[in-house]
Amino acid sequence: MAEANWYVVHTYSGYENKVKMDIEKTIENRKLHDQILEVSVPMQDVVELKNGKRRTVAKKMFPGYVLINMVMNDETWYVVRNTRGVTGFVGPGSKPVPLSPEEIEALAGGGESPVLVDFEVGDSVTVISGAWEGTAGVIASINESKQSVTIHVDMFGRETPVELSFDEIRKL
Question: Which pLDDT tens digit goes with each residue over 99-137?
């Protein structure tokens, strides 16, 4: 029996979960458990910061794509390719290319959850905690890796840069 590999399937945007369910239903109906082993829509926890409130939400890592661990043969290719919402396998021409072990390892790595913020450079903000609480300023720069912003505040008639964490500010 051939070896199972991970393949990437392109879908219509927003149809990822429907494609996953349809393929899983076909696996049940056609008894393909030993050939199509797993269907996955990779999700990632993302921290959103809106109005000073932090919340974690699950977002699709690759919108428009589904990962399938399967043995590639004519039957499995046909089942996946003819599932409603699937536009095709990722690969040159009509030949699907399996993911390399390095690519699979990178996907499994995960890492720290990214932070999505509802403000950008030039926005007016107010400081909601810390030594500068109650101060208003304009965002001059955003450092996502440090999860901080630099704002300009008016101090003694001069604009002074102040670095604050994402949690310390709220958009006006």
Answer: 888 888 777 665 555 666 778 888 888 888 888 888 888
Q: Which CATH fold would you assign to the domain 119-171? A: SH3 type barrels. (2.30.30)
47, β-bridge pairs:
56, 115
On whether the 5-115 domain is CATH 3.30.70.940, my answer is yes
Domain boundaries, the chain: 5-115, 119-171
Average pLDDT over residues 28-42: 92
Confirm whether pTM is higher than 0.85: no
pLDDT, residue 22, reads 95
DSSP 110-144: --SPPEEES--TT-EEEE-SSTTTT-EEEEEEEET
CA dist 76 and 31 (Å) reads 11
